[in-house]
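Minutes, project check-in
Item: structure for the 454-residue chain
Input as provided by the requester:
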Amino acid sequence: MAKPSIPKGTRDFTPTEMMRRNYIFDTIKRVFHKHACLPIETPAMENLSTLMGKYGEEGDRLLFKILNSGDFTKGADFSNSEQSVNKLASQICEKGLRYDLTVPFARFIVQHQHELTFPFKRYQMQPVWRADRPQKGRYREFYQCDVDIIGSNSMINEAELVEIVDEVFESFGIPVVLKINNRKILSGIAEIIGSPEKVTDLCTAIDKLDKIGHDNVCQEIMERGISKESLQKLLPFFEISGMNNRETLNILKSLLSNSEIGTLGIQELETVLTYIENMELRIDVEIDITLARGLNYYTGAIFEVKAKEVAIGSVLGGGRYDNLTGIFGLKNMSGVGVSFGAERIYDVLNELDLFPKHILTPIAAIFLNFGGNDEYYALKGLTHLRKANIASEIYPDNIKIGKQMNYANSKGIPFVIMAGENERKEGKYTLKNMLSGEQVLVSIDEIVDIISKS
């Protein structure tokens, strides 16, 4: 019989891994709450009409599509072998797994607009799916932790998101750099090089710079219909690096002086940076003119965060979207958001050995089981500890004490409580500290005090 397996790009999580993952989610959630963000959830699957066309050509290709229920072949035309995959999918699939949390959020805003108060600050922590090629740090099923502010054009919102990013990674102890750019600057670049209609192709290609390198990006740019002459005009922008943010802005002002939209993008970027500077944040912030974020819906500021000490892709991405809800019928609803990649944050924490040791010992105490009346007495003490919010358990079987102690050791439980006949007669318990080996005969209230202070 074949050994059971799971699809590539997905994973099971052991208790140890889940405790570490919960540490990540809880840490991020605490920061979200501090910034007055409210939680929502959306379904794992959305109508394909909601998802298609929102992420660009490559995004559409990476959508997991769900076959219609019943006879999904009914009404579908399989005779035309030259029809596109997307066209065939539209005939046999009505739903798909969400690619990210932002487009479903836009759909949510339109559906629930009369129930919400704007500006609306939301966070959402749920899995997403992409039919991508699995590799280190890249999975087909993974969690995103999103935070968005929608219903306001103010760039204070961008600065607040940077503050959230700063607090989260400071809490984790991960040294990071936040890369920032503006889509309007990229539109201005496309305009200056004489290919304004190719801005989407330009962004899609530039977004791969870290993955495929400078030469391959240039090759792809030409393959996407941008002329060699335009490419030559683009190269000076690739050379903007190794200087501080204000120097970068001054160079951009000169290069994009004849582009109205490019100049607007520079002004917006300058405004965000000024807010950040006045907030005295600890995070390193760098303008990266090659940062493009391949998703089509971004219109203003765009962000990515990278860990300084681990060779892995971005651990956060996001940006401003001025009219994402407009595709669902609600115009002029600007928003900005960022998405923390929980899986990559996990990998970084693991590689840098930054997970707190205490999260792997969530059980504080265990009662040994001596059977009979002693068992009832132990259960009474167990209830008392749990009412005091101390995570504790009792070994369920009356077996050899050595085996019960081995169980406690294997789970890393710091305290073992013994309640035999002598303890029961005195109305007390023997508490053993598994680290020091010390044993004391104490009341249940004293046990609560000792464990609570440990």
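Outcome recorded: The mean pLDDT is 91.
No further action items on this chain.
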